[in-house]
């Protein structure tokens, strides 16, 4: 193994023989005669490294620094490159990135990690476009995103799923007890997709706008004729809106999607929904929103948060990891599934974690709705989402009976 320290009394020959990279650097600095092994041994043994460098006006410290920079560049160029890409839920993106970068700074991985994790509000169009016509080898090594659209497009990611390209690297055997329900099985039976948490959709009811109607307690209530032109949906939150469409389709078919469209009053950002009762505007009776935004509801006001009795529809936060990069990706996946990250998701963002050690602060009676892996296998979700959107929009415009 090469020495790391160069003493000024060391001979030029000793430095070229014992210090890795020194000969190549000296040749680049103009010591061309060192390229001849006999000459290098002949005069290199009678001159010190310091005196040799002085002939070129270079100090030993400067030479040592150049050598270190050269080694770093060579190391970076030969290291395996690992790439992460995807989106993070907006409420937790900044603290999660800060925590991740701090964790990363304390580790010296034998690979170069490149990551691009944008806010979920930007959608995944940028990522989808960047993957156009890419081979499996060209894909990022780790994806993270909520929702069903791109990851379950059978013409894109579907072909990689069929080729068994990904592997679930979750290290714990069972998921959080919150998801230990008969109809909730979040673990991918094909052991390819992973999850770190979920985004639940709940109701925010404006009791002032209800009139003589009862507070809706289920998705069946939301789809009743009583709430025609009374519901606000997070259409701009693509991941959660798509999850709502798919779950309604699974339980009520196209008729349910049409009824949801008829009951739709308008689309609002969740932050607008919370304050809609204070504005002079057409106010929805019920808004459907991510559970996170219920933190903004003031006690004693007309806005009441309701967790659906038949379960909050969830949009899972997925991980996709390349099987061939398992060795490099395992510590990163372990971090993303750690209790520390789980608490950031759950406590900062009200996005329940799948880690069994995390206290999600969700009442045990609260249930979830999840479309399930059988449904995912049955349909091309990207095409089904487009079909549901079409029915929904037509119903909103009164074109569907």
TrEMBL record:
Q: What keywords is this UniProt entry annotated with?
A: Signal
A Gene Ontology molecular function term for this protein is: thiamine pyrophosphate binding
InterPro entries (UniProt xref) = DUF1858 (IPR015077), ScdA-like_N_sf (IPR038062)
- Kindly indicate whether the keyword Acetylation belongs to this entry: no
| Xref: SUPFAM superfamilies | Periplasmic binding protein-like II (SSF53850), SP0561-like (SSF140683)
The domain of life is Bacteria
> What does the entry list under GO cellular component?
outer membrane-bounded periplasmic space
Stretches assigned to the DUF1858 domain: 6-63
Its GO biological process annotations read: thiamine transport
* Record PANTHER family: ABC TRANSPORTER SUBSTRATE-BINDING PROTEIN, THIAMINE-BINDING PERIPLASMIC PROTEIN-RELATED
Protein name according to UniProt: ABC-type Fe3+ transport system, substrate-binding protein
Q: Which organism is it from?
A: Proteiniclasticum ruminis
Q: What is the lineage of its organism?
A: Bacteria, Bacillati, Bacillota, Clostridia, Eubacteriales
């Amino acid at each position: 193994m090469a020495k790391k320290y160069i003493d000024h009394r060391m001979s030029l020959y000793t430095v070229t023989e014992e210090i890795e990279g020194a000969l190549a650097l000296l040749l680049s600095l103009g010591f061309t005669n060192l390229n001849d092994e006999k000459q290098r041994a002949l005069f290199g043994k009678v001159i010190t490294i310091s005196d040799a460098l002085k002939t070129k006006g270079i100090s030993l410290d400067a030479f040592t620094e150049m050598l270190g920079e050269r080694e770093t560049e060579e190391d970076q160029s030969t290291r395996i490159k690992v790439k992460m890409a995807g989106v993070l839920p907006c409420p937790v993106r900044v603290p999660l990135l800060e925590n991740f970068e701090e964790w990363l700074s304390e580790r010296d991985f034998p690979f170069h990690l490149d990551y691009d994790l944008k806010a979920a509000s930007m959608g995944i169009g940028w990522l989808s476009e960047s993957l156009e016509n890419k081979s499996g080898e060209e894909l990022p090594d780790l994806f993270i995103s909520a929702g069903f659209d791109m990851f379950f497009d059978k013409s894109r990611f579907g072909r990689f799923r069929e080729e068994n390209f990904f592997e679930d690297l979750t290290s714990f055997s069972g998921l959080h007890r919150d998801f230990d329900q008969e109809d909730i099985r979040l673990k991918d039976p094909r052991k390819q997709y992973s999850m770190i948490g979920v985004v639940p959709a709940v109701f925010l009811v404006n009791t002032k706008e209800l009139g003589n109607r009862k507070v809706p307690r289920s998705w069946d209530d939301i789809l009743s004729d009583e709430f025609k032109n009374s519901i606000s949906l997070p259409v701009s939150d693509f991941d959660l809106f798509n999850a709502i469409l798919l779950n309604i389709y699974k339980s009520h078919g196209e008729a349910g999607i049409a009824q949801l469209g008829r009951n739709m009053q308008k689309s609002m950002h969740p932050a607008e929904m919370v304050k809609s009762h204070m504005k002079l505007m057409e106010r929805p009776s019920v808004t459907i929103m991510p559970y996170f935004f219920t933190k903004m509801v003031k006690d004693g006001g007309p806005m009441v948060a309701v967790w659906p009795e038949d379960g909050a529809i969830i949009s899972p936060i997925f991980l996709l990891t390349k099987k061939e990069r398992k060795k490099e990706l395992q510590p990163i996946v372990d971090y993303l599934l750690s209790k520390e990250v789980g608490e950031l998701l759950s406590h900062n963002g009200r996005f329940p974690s799948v880690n069994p050690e995390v206290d999600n602060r969700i009442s045990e009676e609260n249930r979830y709705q999840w479309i399930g892996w059988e449904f995912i296998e049955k349909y091309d979700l990207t095409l089904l989402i487009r079909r549901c959107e079409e029915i929904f929009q037509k119903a909103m415009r009164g074109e569907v009976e």
